[in-house]
Amino acid sequence: MQSESQGRTFSICGDGFGMEYKDSIRAVKGIGEKTAGLFAKLNVYTAGELCEYYPRGYDTCKLPVPIAQAAEGEMTAIEGSVFGVVEIKKIRNLNLLSCTIRDPGGQIRLTWFNQPYLKHTLRPGIRYIFRGKVIRKGGRLAMDQPKIYRQEEYRRLLNRMTPVYPLTEGLTSHAVSKAVAQALSEMEFPPDPVPGRIRRQYGLMGREAAVREIHFPKSADTAADARKRLVFDEFFQFTVRLRQLKEEKQGKKSSFVMTDDGSIGRFAAGLPYRLTKAQVRVWNEILADLTGDYVMNRLIQGDVGSGKTILAVMALFLAARNGYQGCIMVPTEVLAKQHYESMTALLAGEGIRILLLTGSMTAAEKRKAYAQIAAHEADLIVGTHALIQEKVVYDKLALAVTDEQHRFGVKQRLMLSMKGEDPHVLVMSATPIPRTLAMILYGDLDISVVNELPAGRLPVKNCVVDTGYRPQAYRFIERQVRQGHQAYIICPMVEESEMIEAENVMDYTERVKEALTGPAVVEYLHGKMRPREKNEIMERFASGEIQILVSTTVIEVGVNVPNATVMMIENAERFGLAQLHQLRGRVGRGDAQSYCIMVSGNAGKDTMERLSIMNRSNDGFYIAGEDLKLRGPGDFFGIRQSGELEFKMADIYSDAAILQDANEAAGSLSLEEKGALEAFLKNTGTGDLGTAL
Fold first, then answer.
1. Does 182 or 1 have the greater pLDDT score?
2. Which domains can be identified in the chain, with CATH numbers?
3. What is the pTM for the complete model shown?
């Protein structure tokens, strides 16, 4: 039985009302308009999305340790009393309150910012427990902004796993946790989408229990069990849909059978370089598809710089020579413009009309482009997501290419392919994935691998250093700039400090400017900037106007700057190896020797073992394989790769075994069980299996 109230649907649950997954987040008790607005910044709009806004880790209060045993860089609790005077100093806009805490074995300096009222709390002789990250300042142990607890208060928190969430400015982990707890208390969960026989076979807990436990686990073991179930669900839904796609596509007759009149051979012979054997092999596979009877659905996997793009250009050229249209979708406007310019130069004199379509074009420019595309006054269209907008109508779209696939989901690829009447699909990815996983993750595509780099390409020289090397790295970058080259410096987002990405990068940029002794234009780039601002910065860097670009991983793909010779990665230990390899791929694109400096803030044995793989190899497929071996399923919230098939919780490397189980389970579903899964996705507001991609 259901009833309507204030635009909300309630399902009667026990003695009262249960909230449904599709209900607005405003339906959760305690969430008003302002808080709902903050959650909207995190793309959380419904009660179900709130319940599935999973923690990025847990904070566990452990027994206090003697000050002499406090480990630098770790979250630590110490017990002691105030020794001496509690001082307050004013520096610019900051009020700094400091005191020294002592125990029988040592002492530590504690500092709080803009909390002068704590002077009345911290009384000499009273024992407190202070919890924070231990650092060293001027040779002495210190803590900034530690939390203060009375002994009995801290005892109640011991060993409790408190969820820590990804945040936006204005929201705290405590506020998110409170909202989630309220939503869970009101939620009526839909039936479990995974059949009981599969849950038993793979040792999975129930879906509802997993969602509750991931937020508020009783123990580390139950948290691990909950995570295993939720990771399984993500992979399970994904692979079920991929199998459906493959069934729909397999054996589909081509409406665009092409013929090669010899122009491709002439084009390839006129290139300023010879194709590698791997490129020739993959081109023959593409050509067989395009001239065959069935629709092509092919992935080209190849390392950065292996020459995938020229194969796409050849395929697009063939489509245009056959009187059809072709398009190539790339993740950034800067890369779209670079592709447009290079294709225009490569195909000059061939009578092929090439058009650029991006989101930043004016309304009038877009209208003109739409008209040209619809009237087939453009043969090849290069663009960003703008290519899949509703207003874009193609005439005879025979080939749809997606470049840098790991920046697009399967859904965008499908939307592009649906723009024509079953066009051939070519997908390119520079993210190295071991073949066993690629066959699952790209299960609807045939896979070609370009596993050879062009002759004469200078390998990037690598080094892994600690933070003490940073001044020397800056001097090295300065020397490269004086020689006319450019450099990237990558900063990760420091989530532990709950700082927003922009503040971190902007602060670091100022430190770089202060550290440099010579003239250099230094700018920053981060994901929270407006698209127009990002494009402007990238264009200025590509043109050489900016010498040093401090950025987050937003530059992982999307621009080709052959003049950039240094990639310096701060806190390299925070990144997965495949992502480090992607970042390194931004340099080494020109004739000059290039360098990758990986700065690690952690000199632990496991960290250095991981990074040494990057140090000794530039082979992305070797690195991906080693990454898979090293990481395994051990780390509960391990280092995630970014970009490649973004799941909420799952990671294709550390969760490879679960991915293989989920794929096996997906292959065993009956029609009735598939129907139950579809019903679950509709009940939770996900829509259908298509949106699981």
1. 182
2. 62-158 (2.40.50.140), 263-450 (3.40.50.300), 461-617+619-631 (3.40.50.300)
3. 0.73
